[in-house]
């Protein structure tokens, strides 16, 4: 099969389902379009359709020669169908409609690409006689009867055998971070390695339920958390090595569900070194301006690796634990801990990481004949291994596999 192949992507993203499902599917869809395949998204509700349309509109400036990303145009190789009988938490209800759609195909040159935590073995078994099936898995809930199984977890060598044994029914496996379907902005991009660390990225995702950003800034600069009261004048403390931190700019990404945004803006008015970012449309560009990152575990860690930005992670939710643990085991991204268990230890570990990666002894700034600064050398080693682990070509590799399935 080749350019005549049709890929159906079945995924949702809304207030109940993380938008990352649609985002990563669209990254793979773009790679399929580049290989001259056709793409059709199947979604369950108006909210998912609206989110997908927004993702498409932000990618219209992506260089795709002779290709329309507007599903409403007749010559577009990209289309969207909202299923009439779909239910967000029960894929079984949509089966008759999906089976009817697939049964109307003139040939079998189609692949049904599914990215949903609500998948069941009976749902997959019902589809398999009509179409090739690919499944993007995070959870290893059961042995999926599919033609192509993708799991881009960072898998230690010691765990690879267990992963393979849990996917006995899949005809072909794509396992490991080389298949990470990064957003288009992170593909073929690299962050520069600067001699001195000046800019630190801090991100917690869409929300910050443990108030990491507020607590971190307050711990650094000695502010009393201003919960419901006017904060006192900010003053330096001996909590941190101010020789390092007084020269750094902190870039905090405020997610749309962060309840501390007003308090953070109050602090930013008193701290010129604190820069807040809301509604970031191109996270890759922001990341490339930073030298180090402090991030909640999850997809962001893969993106930081692709760009080559040394980072420390922390966790604020159960679904981040395995990701944080896996990256720590690689020796690339240490985990400061879980904010829900010991926030003071997490904050201090993050501070220690930045201090270690930023510190330059005085004689390295005055003597041109000293060896490479230890902190610079350490960052260089880390980013080299990061880029080797995730090179940004995962979506393309998956698209090639879909064309061959």
From TrEMBL:
Domain Glycosyl transferase family 28 C-terminal: 248-318
InterPro entries tied to this protein: Glyco_trans_28_C (IPR007235)
UniProt xrefs under Gene3D superfamilies: 3.40.50.11190, Glycogen Phosphorylase B (3.40.50.2000)
GO molecular function: hexosyltransferase activity
Domain of life: Bacteria
Name of this chain's protein: Glycosyl transferase family 28 C-terminal domain-containing protein
Species, as recorded: Parablautia intestinalis
Lineage: Bacteria, Bacillati, Bacillota, Clostridia, Lachnospirales
């Amino acid at each position: 099969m080749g350019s005549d192949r049709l890929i159906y992507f079945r995924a949702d993203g809304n207030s109940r389902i993380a938008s990352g499902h649609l985002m990563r599917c669209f990254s793979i869809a773009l790679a399929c379009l580049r290989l001259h395949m056709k793409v059709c998204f199947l979604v369950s509700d108006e909210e998912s359709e609206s989110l997908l349309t927004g993702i498409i509109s932000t990618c219209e400036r992506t260089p795709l020669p002779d290709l329309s990303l507007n599903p409403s145009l007749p010559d577009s190789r990209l289309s969207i169908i909202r299923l009439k009988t779909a239910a967000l938490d029960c894929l079984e209800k949509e089966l008759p409609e999906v089976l009817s759609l697939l049964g109307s195909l003139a040939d079998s040159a189609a692949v049904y690409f599914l990215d949903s935590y609500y998948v069941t073995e009976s749902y997959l078994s019902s589809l398999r006689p009509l179409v090739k099936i690919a499944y993007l898995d995070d959870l290893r809930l059961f042995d999926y009867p599919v033609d192509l199984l993708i799991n881009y977890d960072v898998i230690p060598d010691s765990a690879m055998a267990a992963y393979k044994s849990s996917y006995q029914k899949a005809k072909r496996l794509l396992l490991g971070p080389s298949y990470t379907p990064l957003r288009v902005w992170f593909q073929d991009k690299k962050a520069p390695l600067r001699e001195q660390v000046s800019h630190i990225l801090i991100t917690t995702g869409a929300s910050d339920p443990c108030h990491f950003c507020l607590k971190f800034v307050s711990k650094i600069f000695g502010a009393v958390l201003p919960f419901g009261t006017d904060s006192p004048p900010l003053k330096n403390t001996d909590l941190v090595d101010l020789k390092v931190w007084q020269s750094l700019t902190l870039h905090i990404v405020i997610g749309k569900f962060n309840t501390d945004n007003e308090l953070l803006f109050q602090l930013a008015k008193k701290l010129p070194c604190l820069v807040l970012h809301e509604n970031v449309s191109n996270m890759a560009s922001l990341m490339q301006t930073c030298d180090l990152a402090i991030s909640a575990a999850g997809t962001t860690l893969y993106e930081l690796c692709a760009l080559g930005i040394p980072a420390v992670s922390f966790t604020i939710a159960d679904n981040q634990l395995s990701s944080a643990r896996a990256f720590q085991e690689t020796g690339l991204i240490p985990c400061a801990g879980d904010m829900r268990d010991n926030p003071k230890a997490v904050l201090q570990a993050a501070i220690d990481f930045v201090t270690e990666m930023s510190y330059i002894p005085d004689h390295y700034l005055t003597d041109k004949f000293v060896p490479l600064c230890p902190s610079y050398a350490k960052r260089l080693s880390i980013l080299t291994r990061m880029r080797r682990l995730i090179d940004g070509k995962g979506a393309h590799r998956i698209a090639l596999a879909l064309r061959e399935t």
